[in-house]
Structure formats: structure tokens, C-alpha cells
Amino acid sequence: MPQAQKAAAMSFFPQKITELASEVLAAARAKKLRIVTAESCTGGLIGAALTEIAGSSDVVDCGFTSYSYDAKVAQLGIDRATLQKSGAVSGDIALQMVRGALAGSAAEIAVSATGIAGPGGATPDKPVGLVYIGIGNRVNAHSESVKNQFSGDRSAVRMATVEKALHLLKQEIANI
What we know:
With 176 residues, this protein is an alpha/beta fold. The protein has a single domain (3-174), classed as Maf protein. It has helices at 3-10, 15-30, 45-51, 69-76, 80-86, 91-103, 154-174, and strands spanning 35-39, 60-65, 109-115, 130-137, 143-149. The chain has a 5-stranded mixed β-sheet, with helices on both faces. The longest helix is centred in the last third of the chain and has 21 residues, at 154-174.
């Protein structure tokens, strides 16, 4: 049985996520790149999906789970004025999370997630399911944030975010 299938058979993540995580790790490993995560609404699930795969320690450097404003400022160096102005759910914050994670780690690639998983916390401008995923790397200094609108309950929004983040990681690695 291939490694990804073994991991999927024993994982609490859906098979498509463990397979994607395996692909991300293999791509990063082939280019000798390390990954750092900076997560808010996913609460560490992106890092958990990556580390669900045995042998991931040669690729995953570390992860930051920064849920509160204070944690975002302390752990990732997020600008408090931007938090006050834009709130934690914005493209600017997703980018700052990526940059802070890269600065606070030895990794070459970072992914971040900040959003509203629900069921509460929504506003007319920021509905449940709104998630910004940041992606960036220090190899060619690329960074961007991607706005997403996922549907479903809290678990569905969080899993959709993990899947999209892994796709973005895979694409970022391919572009290095």
C-alpha cells in the first residue's frame, strides 16, 4: 500500500486531505524546502494535516496558532493598528501572518489562515465562511492572500480551508 494510502487509512482527516498533504511534503522535500504555518480559524489543522504524514519532520519547521489579537501581535508581529482597523479577517492580516511566520522560523514557505468559521462572529461585510489564506516564501519573496467564501458548518469551513491551503502550498512550491 502506498504511503499516502496508509496514512489516509489511519487518519482522522479525509483521504483527499492526507493525499494532498503527502504531495505537498514530497514536493517540498524534493526542493529541500521547509514549511511554517500561521493559523487562526483552523486552530492548527493545516499543520496537523501535514504532520499526520509520517516523516514530515524534515519538511515542517513549526506552526503558530494565533487566535486572539494579542497572540497575533506577540507571536507574529501583526500590526495592532491594522487589527483595530480591519479586524483579524482580512487579506492584510493574512499577509502579515505569512511574513511573521517566516520571520519567526527557519522555513522557506509559509501559509496562513484567518477567517470566520461560524456559527457566530459574522457581520454583514464578513459572513460565515469568509477565509483569507496567505501564502508566501522567502526564496523569491513572493506573498499573496487569497479570499475564499466557503459554505457549510464550522467543521466544513475549517476542512475546506485546510484543503485550499494545501493546494496553495503545492502551487507555491511548484513556482519556486
